[in-house]
Amino acid sequence: MRISLGESVPNKKEIFLPTAYYNNRQSSDSGIIVGMTGSGKSIIMRTIAFYYHKIRPVYIFDHAGRDHYFGYFPNQNPKNLAPNQDAESLRAYYLYYYNINARPRMKYERLVVPNFKKYNYKQFESLGFSGMSPANLQNILDEKSDIKSFKELNKLIYNSRKIAKNSKEPLLRDLNIKVISKQAWSLDNKKEIDYKKLIMTGKSAVFSFNDLEVAKAEINFFFNELQRMIDKYPKMKPPVLFFEEAHKIFSGSNDQELQRAIEDIILICRKLGIAVFMSLPTIQSIKRDVVGDIKQWFIGKLRGVNANEVKRTIDHPSIAEINRLPLDRHSNHREFIYFNSDKDSGFKFVPFECPQEDNRRV
Length: 362
Description:
The protein has 362 residues and is an alpha/beta fold. Helices cover 31% and strands 17% of the residues. Strand 1 (4-8) and strand 2 form a beta hairpin. The protein is globular.
């Protein structure tokens, strides 16, 4: 399996993603796709995801729920596909997470309403609960596992003697604002999805969360399940993870928390043999000492501080051209620089279109 990226500049030869892991059990590549808004980051991500899903499970995490769900269709107006590549859909489970502000669900998407009771304090923290609220919320749910409504949960918190009075108000406030008002969660499994069964099918999945907080909590829970499954079944085929706008998914209260979260996910994936690709608007979200652990870089148009940061971080002649990369949204012409840290090699290329549909106006 070869991943056809695009045509090299200036000789227009077809180029492929240079990696040695495709046919082995280990697939611990890591890649960062960086560029300004409209530079084509999502096109690169979709293309890599399409080819990878032919040989191993691909999990695409789209917090906004608007970038990948049209992959169910073949590209309906292909103009620059790779040679010998037809328009083709990305075959996967398409999961749609409901909330009151979500986009309309497509007929092929499976409706998911997560069970709030499955979470522990880590997921509650990712939802923005702070102080003693995560621990208090987990204790309530552990003691009263038969809670059937959020109204009942509110009442239990209000009447609890184990929660300090000054802790009840912020907990109840956050529960109503961050959870109940969104109508994104239930307290049963009627529309829940069993992640363990999903992982064991070996099939790919596109997660359209339609809300950033839902994405943070569900990704945290899913990743913990995935780690346990790989530990339990070490011979299972490792998946490839794709994080759209990773700087938002892993954001914390400050830049240091964001950098630490991205560092953790990259290093854990490497240990587990999981490939991981992230799209970002800048590399300032990545700690300098983690840059060496990222094997592949796809760099689109950047300006000013963001461009200079890349030049300081990746010391290679190919990166010097980053300020001069073309980006014409009218003609759809754009160029990227690819850099492989293992081979200390880089080149400039014009990306092919992805075989699956990427037009949001279908």
